[in-house]
């Protein structure tokens, strides 16, 4: 993997560009016309509130409260809402999920503070494409590629053998402790969601988790920082992609929208974040394991000139050296296996080399039968 050893061009921090006060953005951030956001169709703009031609759409919101009830009918009803959301959207928000709200707020704020530190401090964590761990400003190593308007911090939480707290920010001083606590609670919630998805797929409660490697799953955190952008209509904070891993739990900024989910064609729904909710989405590995009963969904992030935005994406992934392929109960004569076996280690080289490219990778795997 020699191509992944170093960045092809000097790294420019988007935050530094933004703070330099430029009025027009450099060429390398200007997206081709077809990929630019159409900011004026923002679907939850208040102007559209009561206009039947522009119904206010949002991804489904699911209250997990009833999943913890002893009443089976209530649990089944929630499971059925989740099932609909997985099939129709691949994206939903969850509330009453059991993760401490104060912890969610503190985790987001500590990262906001991290990005406010002087560039020299953050620079100590500068990452390389071999592992992506640390402070980064691009995904993909193709020379001359168009870049996204964001910086990020990427770290491994699980497995324990990859968790190296000395690579996590030492400042703000509560950062490491908060990340550890946040990781623990969110990973636990992912485990619960995995059971719900497994049952909804008609499998045993633990079957999906077992296919991920049981206890040995991977979990990584990517904290995204989207600085203010003087020309938000020309670029994206994060280009369209599906998440390569299993399940993603996103803690969005409570004040600033930005995440868009592709509905059909070039229709994008801007997600309206609900207070204290997580945004859950299906990644490519669950598409493969479920033999495409559940599909990962393309999403992207738009930026704006008024406010910066912070989001925390926790990626819950299969053990990285396990072969991932459609679960045998989901392969039938009428529905043969759509994907060949591949490890997640092999799979993620694609996005790490080419950067975000819609659903190009998982679609290209599809057997041609
Ligand atoms: C991601 C992602 C969305 C956001 O990190 O993969 O899609 O709103 N983030 O930051
Ligand atoms: Ni994503």
UniProtKB/TrEMBL annotation:
Pfam families on file: 2OG-FeII_Oxy (PF03171), DIOX_N (PF14226)
Cofactor section: L-ascorbate; Fe(2+)
SUPFAM superfamilies, A to Z: Clavaminate synthase-like (SSF51197)
InterPro entries noted in UniProt: DIOX_N (IPR026992), IPNS-like_FE2OG_OXY (IPR044861), IPNS-like_sf (IPR027443), Oxoglu/Fe-dep_dioxygenase_dom (IPR005123), Plant_2OG-oxidoreductases (IPR050295)
Catalytic reaction annotation: jasmonate + 2-oxoglutarate + O2 = (1R,2R)-12-hydroxyjasmonate + succinate + CO2
Keyword Transcription regulation: no
Fe2OG dioxygenase domain location: 216-318
Keyword Hydrolase: no
Keywords, alphabetical: Dioxygenase, Iron, Jasmonic acid signaling pathway, Metal-binding, Oxidoreductase, Plant defense
GO molecular function, one term: jasmonic acid hydrolase
Biological process per Gene Ontology, one example term: negative regulation of defense response to insect
UniProt family annotation: Belongs to the iron/ascorbate-dependent oxidoreductase family.
Name of protein: Fe2OG dioxygenase domain-containing protein
Native species: Acer saccharum
């Amino acid at each position: 993997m020699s191509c992944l050893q170093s960045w092809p061009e000097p790294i420019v921090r988007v935050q530094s560009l933004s703070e330099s006060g430029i009025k027009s953005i450099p060429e390398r951030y200007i997206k081709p016309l077809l990929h630019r956001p159409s900011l004026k169709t923002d679907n939850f703009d208040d102007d559209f509130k009561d206009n039947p031609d522009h119904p206010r759409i949002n991804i489904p919101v699911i209250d997990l409260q009833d999943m913890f009830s002893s009443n089976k009918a209530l649990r089944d009803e929630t499971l059925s809402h989740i099932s609909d959301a997985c099939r129709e959207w691949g994206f939903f928000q969850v509330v009453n999920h059991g993760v401490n709200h104060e912890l969610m707020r503190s985790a987001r704020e500590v990262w906001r503070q991290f990005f406010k530190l002087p560039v020299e401090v953050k620079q100590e964590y500068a990452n390389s494409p071999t592992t992506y761990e640390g402070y980064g400003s691009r995904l993909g190593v193709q020379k001359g590629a168009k870049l996204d308007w964001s910086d990020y911090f990427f770290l491994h939480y699980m497995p324990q053998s990859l968790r190296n707290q000395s690579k996590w920010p030492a400042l703000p001083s509560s950062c490491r402790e908060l990340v550890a606590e946040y990781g623990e609670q969110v990973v636990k919630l992912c485990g619960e969601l995995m059971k719900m998805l497994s049952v909804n797929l008609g499998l045993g409660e633990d079957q999906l988790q077992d296919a991920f490697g049981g206890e040995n799953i991977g979990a990584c955190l990517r904290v995204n920082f989207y600085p203010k952008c003087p020309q938000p209509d020309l670029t994206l904070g994060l280009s369209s992609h599906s998440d390569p891993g299993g399940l993603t739990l996103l803690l969005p900024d409570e004040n600033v929208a930005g995440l868009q989910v592709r509905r059909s064609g070039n229709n994008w729904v801007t997600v309206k974040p609900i207070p204290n909710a997580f945004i859950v989405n299906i990644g490519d590995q669950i598409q493969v394991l479920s033999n495409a009963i559940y599909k990962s969904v393309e999403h992207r992030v738009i930026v704006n000139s008024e406010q910066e935005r912070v989001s925390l994406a926790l990626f819950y992934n299969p053990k990285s050296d396990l072969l991932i392929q459609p679960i045998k109960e989901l392969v039938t004569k009428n529905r043969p296996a759509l994907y060949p076996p591949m490890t997640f280690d092999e799979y993620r080289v694609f996005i790490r080399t080419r950067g975000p490219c819609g659903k190009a990778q998982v679609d290209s795997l599809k057997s041609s039968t």
